Amino acid sequence: RRVRLSNRLAQQSKGKTREGADDPLTAGDLSSHRVMYGGLSAAFPAIAIVSEEHTEGDHDTAVNLLSRARALRGLIGDDVLVPAQAVTVWIDPLDATQEYTENLLDYVTTMVCVAVHGSPVIGVIHQPFLNKTTWGWVGHGSNVQAPPHSDVAETNVVVVSRSHAGEVESLAKKAFGQDVKVVPAGGAGYKVLQLVEGHADAYLHSSAIKKWDVCAGNALLASLGGRMTALDGTNLGYSLEGSQVHLGGLLASVHNHGRMLDAVRKVRPPKP
Predict the structure, then answer these.
(1) N or C: which terminal CB in the chain sees fewer CB atoms within 10 Å?
(2) Structure letter (DSSP) for residue 212
(3) pTM for the full model?
(4) Which has the closest alpha carbon to 152: 264, 256, 252?
(5) What confidence category does residue 205 fall into, taking pLDDT thresholds of 50, 70 and 90?
(6) Annotation-wise, does 193 bind a ligand?
(7) What range defines the domain where residue 202 resides?
(8) Where does Mg(2+) bind (predicted)?
């Protein structure tokens, strides 16, 4: 946030995305990464941490985050114990970097996810420009409530990525009908929050996506009884040994996931 407000982004490019667009990197990405990675690794040195922006100097002191981690550990106690080697933490220091450079700050989030044996268990999505944090812990609760469930067998609003909205809009209309409203948005974290806040029924993505983009949202949805799966219906895995890229597209929702997944699979059958 401080970098964005100073207007000194020091923007670079990490290369091209699979869609051919520039993949930007800013001082905000790196600053957020160093604080998050440094604080978590200092508080929990035995666990594996995967961050989008891994650089040298990651173990710099991060006093604020470290103190918060200790406070949280004191708050929740030690009622859940798992082997350290079973835990992988996924960090996205700044989701929606492109929108960050365009000053579309509502889309910007920072995310942390705790996976145990490859399953997303704790997800935290923070909106730094709204000073708002949403979290969920599977089996333990969340600081938000799921939107009301509707028995109406319709999918009215689908949120998709701004970067390739046309391709996914076509898929959404084939699956859910021509009247479905397709809303392009930036950032995977923001799109999950649209589901949690009841502004959209489904989040649909048809191409490759990095796992640090979706792990926190996956855990948050699971804590509320929702689901995020590949388009073939399989669960996403977040073990350290697996690939950092998910290739199978995804469908996420709080309610009616099975019905919507069936609709997508009818028009986009799983590849053999």
Answers:
(1) C
(2) H
(3) 0.82
(4) 256
(5) very high
(6) no
(7) 157-267
(8) 52, 92, 94-95, 213
